[in-house]
Amino acid sequence: MSVMIIGIAGGTGSGKSTFTNRLRDAFPNDVAVVYHDNYYRRQDDVPFEERKKVNYDHPASLETDLMIKHLKMLKKGQAVDCPVYDYSAHNRSQETIHIEPKKIILAEGILLLADPLLRSMMDIKIYVEADADERILRRIVRDVKERGRDLDNIVDQYLTTVKPMHYLYVEPTRALADVVINSGMNNVAFDIVKSKIQLMLDEN
Ligand SMILES: Nc1ncnc2c1ncn2[C@@H]1O[C@H](COP(=O)(O)OP(=O)(O)O)[C@@H](O)[C@H]1O
Ligand SMILES: Nc1ccn([C@@H]2O[C@H](COP(=O)(O)O)[C@@H](O)[C@H]2O)c(=O)n1
Q1: pTM (2 decimals)?
Q2: What interface predicted TM-score (ipTM) does this complex get?
Q3: Whose CA is nearest to atom 5 of ligand 2?
Q4: 18 lines ligand 1 (CB under 6 A)
Q5: What's the CATH class of domain 4-194?
Q6: pLDDT per residue over 102-134, tens digit each?
Q7: Which long-range contacts (CB under 8 A, 24 or more apart) does 51-58 make?
């Protein structure tokens, strides 16, 4: 089976997951999704108060080597047990997700195109763009509702790590993408990428 990997990067709150999940839902039998966020490092020995202060927007916070290993296995037609990240605990949970190999693998994450080896594995590189003010507003709502955060913590983290790392590591990867799309809800961009996937599936 020939396997294609499509990388979906972009800043926090840009709409990466929205776009990725729409594609997954359009091809439920042929697409598997690997989220880079699930490869944030295990921090069992780090006290919770210290875990809160970690720079999670720096490439060193992610175990990218393990994600590369898993993508290589999926490409060879082997299933993987992917870690599951718990944002409220700032740590990996005890669970894993079993991912069966599929013809199309979607890989998603803010720093997905920042690592040269990981980037080189992508057959198509997509960057989802959105204005910084919209991204932070979406992040505030999401982090309060879904990631167990409070407003003071979100603002402090944004100013100390999220924003500076975005301009240092995430935004520069925009120029490395094959396709830059304006929002994860852009229907024209969605239809174009969907057609490309359909073409790949028909050729296989
Ligand atoms: N174009 C948009 N307009 C309004 N809300 C959006 C848009 N794109 C995403 N959202 C919402 O913003 C939040 C973050 O989007 P998400 O796709 O999870 O971003 P990312 O994965 O890039 O961090 C989600 O609640 C999502 O529903
Ligand atoms: N313990 C953690 C781990 C990560 N984050 C933040 O997640 C963001 C990436 O996820 P998106 O869905 O927003 O792309 C990243 O900006 C990290 O700051 C966190 O807050 N806590």
Answers
A1: 0.97
A2: 0.98
A3: 56
A4: yes
A5: alpha beta
A6: 999 999 999 999 999 999 999 999 999 999 999
A7: 51/89, 51/90, 51/91, 52/90, 52/153, 54/90, 55/161, 55/165, 56/90, 56/161, 57/12, 57/110, 57/111, 57/161, 57/162, 57/165, 57/166, 57/169, 57/170, 58/161, 58/165, 58/169
